[in-house]
Amino acid sequence: MENERSAAINIGGKEYELILTTRATKAIAGRYGGLENLGEKLMKSENFEMALDEIIWLITILANQSILIQNLRNKNSPEDLLTEEEVEILTTPFDLAEYKNAITEAMFKGTKRNVESEEETSKNVEVG
């Protein structure tokens, strides 16, 4: 996978790439009302179990993007998608705390290009 738009994690001895695709962005926006609300939602989770559920959901959706891309490119040998249950069973709460950094990195990389191109456009605008 392209390292410039993903963050790698290891679940149960298998490496997964977390990628913020347009599909993932739509799912996140549907659940949280937009990417900007995601951090606030995770920080304000009422209890530990709810916070874990949110991180598990995010890991599953972001890790499945790389599998979906792989399956799109290799239609004859599709891989199974990761389930939330598998993430719960194959990880520890300590793992999930570390994965939060990878989630943040994937989100940053997924939105980085848009921010850079907007800044370049505004710099090139003539004044006066």
Automatic annotation (TrEMBL):
This is Uncharacterized protein. It comes from Mobilitalea sibirica.
